[in-house]
Amino acid sequence: MEINEGNLQTLAGYLQQTLSPDSAVRKPAEEFLESVEGNQGYPILLLHLLNKSDADLTIRIAGSVAFKNYVKRNWRIDEDSAGDKINSSDRANIKQLIVGDRKSVV
After folding, report:
1. Of 8, 24, 56, 90, most Cβ neighbours within 10 A?
2. Can you say whether the dihedral through the CA atoms of 97, 5, 37, 51 is positive or negative?
3. Of 48, 35, 43, 67, whose CA–CA distance to 9 is shortest?
């Protein structure tokens, strides 16, 4: 997934929909996010959205939860089954972005 304003806005829109109390709105948004989480660049796009200071705070929090769940489901490399669920360049970029962000806070 390319990191551009259009994709960031689309992702933000789906994250906003996941907060809806209406299951007819929430469920399709959750299913869409699950369907694209295997795409290369998805976790990087999420991290860029989280770091956008002009993004709505509720969207950034929903994105944080989505990123946490993504890592929880996919970070472990399972040698017995499909192997690595996260693209190797995404894995390296995630590490760089998180370490880079932590250094800027200190």
Report:
1. 90
2. positive
3. 48
